[in-house]
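Run log // design_07
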C-alpha cells in the first residue's frame, strides 16, 4: 500500500490527490513527478522530490508556484489545473464526455487524470495515484504510443475491431529502446499500444514476478479519433493488490513540505 493510501502526515487521502508530471523534451516517456495536487476542504499544491531533477533538466517554476519549499492553498482549483478541464460551454462537450467514458459530470481531479491534463502549450501531465479498490488494483487509462503504430498499415485492422470488455494481453518489453520497464498491450491481432511509462514503472515488477498477475480489458474505443477526442484506446488493468506493493512511494514522490502552510 502506498504512502497515500490513508490520511497521514501528508494530509490527504488517495482519492483526493493527483501527481503533476513534467517531461523535458519530445520524448514523453521521460516524465518526472514534480508536484502533487490534493484536496482536503481546500485545494493544496506541493512540490515533490522529483522537481529537483526536473530543474536540473530545464524546468522553470511556474509563476503560480514560484517556490519549491512552501505549500500553496486555495478554495478554487488553481489556474494551471483549471485550464486543463474541458470548457463546459463547448459544443463538443457531449462528444468529449462520451469519449472519456464519463456518464455524469466528473470530479475535476478524475477528469484531469483520465485525460492526462494535456495541453499543446506545455509539457505537463496529470496522473492519478494507484490505490487499492476492495483489495484489488484498478487502473483506467488511455494506451499510449498509438502514433507510432499508425506508421504501420495494419494498425487500423488491430484497433477498429476492439470492443468494450475484450480481454487484452500485457507483455513486458524489457529491450525497449526508450524504457526498460515498458509494457506492451496486445490483442489477438497484435500490438495495440503501451502502458504509460509512469504506470509501467510500478507494474513491471509485478509482471516480472508473475506474468499472469494482471489482467487488461478494453473499456472504450474512440475510432475514428477527432480533434476533440484524440485518445483512442481506453483500457482497465486489474489484479490482486500485493500486500508489499507500494507504487509511487520513492523519494521523488515525497512532498518537500510535510507540514501544511497557508499559501496564496
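design_07 sequence
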Amino acid at each position: 500500500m502506498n504512502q497515500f493510501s490513508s490520511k497521514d502526515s501528508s494530509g490527504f487521502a488517495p482519492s483526493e490527490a493527483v501527481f503533476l508530471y513534467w517531461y523535458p523534451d519530445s520524448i514523453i516517456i521521460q516524465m518526472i513527478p514534480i508536484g502533487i495536487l490534493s484536496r482536503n476542504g481546500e485545494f493544496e499544491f506541493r512540490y515533490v522530490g522529483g522537481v529537483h531533477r526536473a530543474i536540473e533538466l530545464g524546468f522553470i517554476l511556474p509563476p503560480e508556484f514560484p517556490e519549491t519549499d512552501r505549500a500553496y492553498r486555495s478554495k478554487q482549483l488553481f489556474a494551471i489545473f483549471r485550464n486543463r478541464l474541458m470548457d463546459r460551454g463547448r459544443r463538443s462537450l457531449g462528444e468529449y464526455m462520451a469519449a472519456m467514458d464519463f456518464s455524469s459530470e466528473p470530479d475535476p481531479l478524475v477528469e484531469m487524470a483520465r485525460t492526462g491534463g494535456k495541453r499543446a502549450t506545455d509539457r505537463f501531465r496529470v496522473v492519478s495515484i494507484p490505490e487499492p479498490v476492495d483489495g484489488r488494483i484498478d487502473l483506467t487509462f488511455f494506451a499510449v504510443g498509438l502514433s507510432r503504430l499508425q506508421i504501420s498499415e495494419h494498425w487500423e485492422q488491430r484497433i477498429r475491431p476492439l470492443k468494450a470488455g475484450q480481454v487484452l494481453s500485457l507483455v513486458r518489453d524489457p529491450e525497449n529502446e526508450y524504457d526498460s520497464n515498458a509494457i506492451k498491450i496486445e490483442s489477438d491481432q497484435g500490438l495495440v499500444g503501451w502502458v504509460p511509462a509512469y504506470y509501467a514503472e510500478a507494474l513491471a515488477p509485478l509482471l516480472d514476478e508473475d506474468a499472469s498477475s494482471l489482467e487488461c480489458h478494453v473499456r472504450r474505443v474512440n475510432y475514428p479519433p477527432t480533434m476533440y477526442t484524440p485518445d483512442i484506446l481506453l483500457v482497465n488493468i486489474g489484479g490482486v493488490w500485493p500486500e508489499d506493493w507500494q507504487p509511487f512511494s520513492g523519494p521523488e514522490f515525497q512532498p518537500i513540505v510535510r507540514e501544511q502552510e497557508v499559501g496564496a
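The two ends are 33 Å apart (CA to CA).
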